[in-house]
Amino acid sequence: MNSSSFASRTHRYQLANGITLLVLENHSNPTISLSGYVRAGEYFSPLDKDSLASVTSSMLGKGTVRRTKLEIAEELESTGARLGFSSNNFITSVSGQSLSRDLPLIISTLAEELREPAFPAEELDKMKQRFIASIREDQDDTRSRAYERMSQLVFPVGNPYYRLPAETTISNLEAISTDDLRGFYEKYYGADSMLLVVVGDVQPDEVRALVEKHLGEWQGAPAPEINLAETPLQTEAKREVVQMKDKPNCDVIIAHASRLRRSNPDYLAAIIGNNALGQSTLSSRLGLKVRDEMGLTYGISSGFRSGLADGPFSIGVTVAPQNIDPAIDTTLEIVGDYIASGITEEELKDEQSSVIGSYKIGLATNSGIAGQIVSAELFGLGTEYLDEFPSHVAALTKPQIDEAIRKYLHPEVATTVIAGTLEK
User: Which segments of 155-266 does DSSP mark as H helices, in order?
Assistant: First the structure.
């Protein structure tokens, strides 16, 4: 193995309590980045408290049994350090940055917030109001409303990509109590599902000693399993309108179940295929035709939401009400032509160069490296993947991309949702 490779430079430690720790030395500047996760995302929230995972993770930084949130924040800010938690569909993530000399502070604070959260009631009330205000703001946004309704038409209730109606989510949020937070925390937070990655100006064995000191005795909940059936394609196209008042423009979402997961062997081929079709408003097929040539929109893009589970493939376009049908018809025509003819060799080379270049730029920072290591571990790819990724992308061929395009793009059964002010 190349001694300068990411894989050879990454030290892996498996603690007795189940925590996986990976450390990569980078002495180019006196800083560190920390990333990691536990399996405690929204997939595990009960249906009648669908935001419980996100509220719980957001409350971890709001005080412990020993200190208030202000006391913790003042100590971190005095050194310029940052530490925070967030949740997505399947995991609760942790991220932190500091000078390397302050790594002990980051690790000890992380351990305190993970092991001794107080979940103060007054902070919970404030947090719920912030969540509710954000939801109500989204309800006035045409893109959010179109996407919300699309998710309800494409995915079954209980699927992590299904969004409950806003008023239902608000009602569920209002009902969340500190007992709910404590119950969720005790059921899903534990060392057994925890990954920690530290990248920067450190000595690996010293990092291990710090983590052992502060988190080595933590047990918590056993690692929960994620078992989610693939969402099948629907059998026919659907179209629905979400009426909203006084909106000068409309948003259109055209989507269907993708059946694409990060573990699929043709995942990269599908991603490169989409990039050429619609990742960029400025340079993709959709952008060049619908935006530049026809002038029907200022913004159009497409993408997959795929990871541990299969989310939607969707195309989003913002249009004036009188341009809705021309924009939809042109978009579907472009997708149909793309499926029929496939990617061009020039498009393939451009996308390969773009993806590889962006990837390498991202690895220029400690946080970029830490994030890629976390992703590689989450999806079972291993640290070797950081070194192998550019060659995997460069090896993709037109027939592979074309096959993925035809496998994963199905406009003939897509759901189209239009949100805005439309004449009835």
Answer: 166-175, 178-188, 204-215
Cβ(315)–Cβ(255) below 8 Å = yes
Q: Give the DSSP per-residue string, 373-416.
A: HHHHHHTT--THHHHHHHHHHHT--HHHHHHHHHHH--GGG-EE
**20-25 and 195-200 strand pairing:** parallel
Q: Which residues contact 90 (CB under 8 A, 6 or more apart)?
A: 39, 41, 42, 43, 160, 226, 307, 308, 309
The whole-number mean pLDDT for each consecutive block of 10 residues of the chain, a chain of 424 residues, reads 84 98 96 98 95 98 97 97 97 98 98 98 97 97 98 96 96 98 98 98 98 98 95 96 97 98 98 95 88 90 96 97 96 97 97 97 97 98 97 98 98 98 85
- Residue 187, C-beta contacts closer than 8 angstroms, at least 6 positions apart: 44, 221, 224
76/102 Cα distance (integer angstroms): 9
Is there a contact between 211 and 202 (Cβ–Cβ < 8 Å)?
no
Distance of CA 216 to the CA centre of its chain: 29
* 82-87 vs 92-99, strand pairing mode: antiparallel
C-alpha span between 219 and 208 (Å, rounded): 17
